[in-house]
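Collaboration report, partner site 2.

Our partner group contributed sequences for two proteins of shared interest, and the home lab folded both. The records are reproduced in the order in which they were received, starting with the first partner submission.
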Amino acid sequence: MEKRDQLYEGKAKVLFATDDENLLVQYFKDDATAFNGVKSGTIADKGVLNNLISSRLMALIEIVGIPVHLVKRLNDREQLVRRVEIVPVEVVVRNRAAGSMSKRLGIPEGTVLPRPVIEFYLKSDELDDPLITVDHIDVFNWASHDEVDQIIEMSHRINDVMMGYYANIGIHLVDYKLEFGRLSSDPDTLVLADEISPDSCRLWDMETGKKLDKDRFRRDLGGVEEAYQEVVARMGLQN
């Protein structure tokens, strides 16, 4: 597989074309941002660690029958992925109150929710990713009814897999962001895309409550690299 021209560079990843129009190379950067780019910096080896973590989680999710964009991990920083058209809606799955939910609703961080809550946000840095409803998605045609139903169903199934996996290694999966895309080779097929990593998940140690995710960067807690490394170690991955 030959890597060709750069197609896109985001805050955390770069996408390159290949000699197959339906496949891309996804490169993980060490750049870190928070609050939609208001805060920026670098986390040493973050790209390497997130590639390891996301590759493992995507593989586990695919095993239970949920299609993913990942084809395979190529090296320390790169994955071969299927080309998709990203649905312009971020999906946030919450198992405990934290972050913006706690601020909006005045619920103490760490409060266990009676059941998982799924929220939708418009993908727009310019608008600061506003919270939206299913009606907004329908009215503005960001996704069809069937796609929204699929996204909700897949998100709950992903949550079951991820909650169990992290519980087995002593970590609370507090909340996390998902993105879905339509395959370029088959636009009727939705797949899980982007990444799942400490960049996009809140992960707390079950015994101490220690944060093992990008909140350490957002909130200037220090020990960011060590937290990511600890997640990799608990997952039994080689760095």
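Second partner submission, folded after the first:
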Amino acid sequence: MAREKNVLLGVTASIAIYKACDIVRKLRAESLQVTVAMTKEAEELIRPIVFQSLSGNKVYRGLFQEPEAWEIEHIALAEKADLVLIAPATANIIAKFANGICDDLLTCVVAAIKAPVVIAPAMNTNMYQNKIVQANIKKLQNNGYKFVGPREGKLACGKEGVGCLASVEEIVKEVRKIL
């Protein structure tokens, strides 16, 4: 019998974070193991216990948390993952990935990963269309990172534009396609 595939879901501080809960549920419904790694800023929007309850797994948060077992956590997470999904992905985390900045658990995991990385951006239109953000996205795409969305819709600021997180179904479909 084949083992369940492991998806590491990286969650960042976008207002679209509430949709990450549905992503966890849908991935679990697809018989995928889901482990969540949150940025410190994401914890300001949603508590880790929510993701722990939905995934059935420990939520990883800090680079210097006490590990449950003797292992270098960011390396162990990178080696265990069959795919990393960053949803929602902020302009900040995209910039960090594109420039090799490793200043938290999630960026260190992505720097150490050999598995595919899928990024689902969610941010204001002005931020998404910023030339630097677009250059960072191109840089990551040129290095094999996959992007899903964003789509056009009503943004948190009340305006319409490109920057809404892709639909949960579209994100899960892309994960399934790659796995």
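Feedback sent to the partner group on the second submission included the following. The two ends are 16 Å apart (CA to CA). The chain is about 40% helix and 20% strand.
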